[in-house]
Amino acid sequence: MSAPFGQRLAAAVAARESNIVLGLDPDPMRLWPGALAAAGDGPPEQRVARTVLAHCHLVIDAVAPAVVAVKPQVACFERLGAQGRTVLGAVCDHARERGLLVIADAKRGDIDVSARAYAEAFLGRTATPYGPIEGLGADALTANAYMGADTVEALLAVARPEGRGLFVLVRTSNPGAADLEDLPTGPDGVPVWARAAELVAGLGGADSLSDVGAVVGATAPEHVSRLRELMPRTPFLLPGVGAQGGRVE
Amino acid sequence: MSAPFGQRLAAAVAARESNIVLGLDPDPMRLWPGALAAAGDGPPEQRVARTVLAHCHLVIDAVAPAVVAVKPQVACFERLGAQGRTVLGAVCDHARERGLLVIADAKRGDIDVSARAYAEAFLGRTATPYGPIEGLGADALTANAYMGADTVEALLAVARPEGRGLFVLVRTSNPGAADLEDLPTGPDGVPVWARAAELVAGLGGADSLSDVGAVVGATAPEHVSRLRELMPRTPFLLPGVGAQGGRVE
Description:
The structure is a homodimer.
Chain A: H1 5-16, E1 20-24, H2 44-63, E2 69-72, H3 74-78, H4 84-97, E3 101-108, H5 112-122, E4 125-126, E5 133-134, E6 140-143, H6 149-159, E7 165-171, E8 184-185, E9 190-191, H7 192-203, E10 212-216, H8 221-230, E11 236-237, E12 245-247
Parallel strand pairs in A: 1-2, 2-3, 3-6, 6-7, 7-10, 10-11
Antiparallel strand pairs in A: 1-12, 4-5, 8-9
Helix pairs in contact in A: 2-4, 5-6
């Protein structure tokens, strides 16, 4: 059994003297010019796969000394077709070789067996009659708790024994956050995002830094202090600090 | 430009005289025995990929005459590793050859560019310097609207011109639905799920059957009539009717 994710995260932040997370959101039309030489020949899928991989390696190599983790946006790899998962796996391997944690930004959420399958895909492994299929090996996965605590617990049932963690969406920074996240609930008008924060706090382990983190939009700073009150032991993932950047607090 | 998804769905339901959706949630440890002969040799990933594909083909062939669509649970394919997307693509191709619509059950939700990337992956295609990478070609995608209408609109911006649709989570049937979905909001105590329903209804196109559907837990029948009032032109996807089954109403 691995050390709990909260401990691993705290140790990594201390060792690297950084709480910065490098976002990786590769757009095939906007890669670093140095990556394009890797295209080679073959069908478009293979050429794109090579350039996206080269781009991510270049970015990681350039930034690794200053950061504690990478956060690949899984959507950007899924759209690469059959090659996408292979490229994502290679990017994660490269980040690990540079001593970085990997936060798979997939925002998954589903009921029991489906949530378990996602956790196996990203954080664990899948049992088969022919032996286990290893998952992506990410250190943490972003998750969506709209469907409730049991759906997050199903992810956590796989993650926690592996020393892996979650970052659950609480209050995001897009304009649409007003539609559901900000709705006032109950007699006191507590917003939905504060209820989500309570849910996150309730799922944390016994460590001083929880293995269930929160995604908190950095462009809503007035909420951050309130969120810290609600989630005193929860690591915060703040996307949007800088271009494709983020930070763990 | 393809016909709108609502029209395509209505036509398919009429032509096939069925509103039943076949759920595909393959577990490598619980496949139909007839699929295991396809395992062949090689590393576990390849053997599992072959058996999962054979299983899904067998299930589709057995049930196709009675259903209008298949709903592959994407988590079950993601956990197959690098082979997962290839297997999922082949399953979707097979369903289409049997005349079925494909609803990718991925419950995606993310901000603007990331949502767009998911829509490209499942419903559209991705521009690259070497030519477009075709997506999965699903007819519809399930989505999570916790982050608000703009995140669903970003999916729809890709889906609608392609004649593809969405099914947005509104009220699910798991116990955890009480945690956030059921919270009473505002002075009238309107539950969050009803706000989500209004959001869904507001995104629908001009057709008599909208291209933005709703996922409604079939085990909460007391909610269905209220949801129909809130979303008069919205197709409902009701998971949980029968084992791995569902229905479009």
